Amino acid sequence: MDINRITPFLVVQSFILVGLTGFIFLWPGEWNASRWFAAAIAFPSMVLFLMARYQLGRSFSVTAQARELVTHGVYSKIRHPIYVFGGLIVLAFLIALQKPIYLLILLATIPLQIKRARNEARVLEEKFGDAYREYRKNTWF
Fold first, then answer.
1. pLDDT tens digits, residue range 67-113?
2. 132: burial class by Cβ within 10 Å (0-12, 13-18, 19+)?
3. CA–CA separation, 74 and 109 (whole Å)
4. Cα(117)–Cα(125) distance, rounded to whole angstroms?
5. How far apart are the C-alpha atoms of 34 and 57, rounded to whole Å?
6. Distance between CA atoms of residues 118 and 48, nearest Å
């Protein structure tokens, strides 16, 4: 494990994700199909999110910045795994609540995440040019 990849923000994100996923497993409600479905989405999404976040290392930033073109690990298949798996964790949490109206929260955030991903793509393409365009051809979202 490369200690340089572990930042205080990664630690905070990890606690939040473990808390959201833990809620699904530890919440005292009934274990029905919705809750099992939420758990089946949440746990692998949490693991993949944390893997992606670790692999991103110090290239992570809240605003779009082009420090390094990360193309290994989870990033070799998905350009924005933090958005994808973060969205799935939120979906799982909302399913576990078993209040369908809460899914509107997720619907409201999807366009914002798409906008952020497009902005990041623009910044990365400006900095890395053909290398980013080639990477983009071989990855999903």
1. 789 999 999 999 999 999 999 999 999 999 989 999 999 999 999 99
2. buried
3. 23
4. 12
5. 34
6. 21
Distance, in Å, from the CA atom of 39 to the CA atom of 45, rounded to the nearest integer, reads 10
Strand partners, 140: 78
For 10, 101, 107, 110, 122, the CA distances from 56, given in Å and listed in that order, are 10, 34, 26, 22, 18
Euclidean distance between CA atoms 37 and 96, whole angstroms: 8
Predicted local distance difference test score (pLDDT) of residue 58? 73
User: What is the predicted pLDDT for the residue at 117?
Assistant: 93
pTM of the model as a whole:
0.84
Q: Which 8-state DSSP code applies to residue 129?
A: T
CA–CA distance, 12 with 99 (Å, rounded to integer): 27
Q: Which two tokens stand for residue 79?
A: 């350009």
User: pLDDT band for position 4 (50/70/90)?
Assistant: low
Residue showing tokens 């809620």: 23
- Which tokens in the block code for residue 97? 């609540």
Percentage of residues of the chain with pLDDT beyond 90: 65
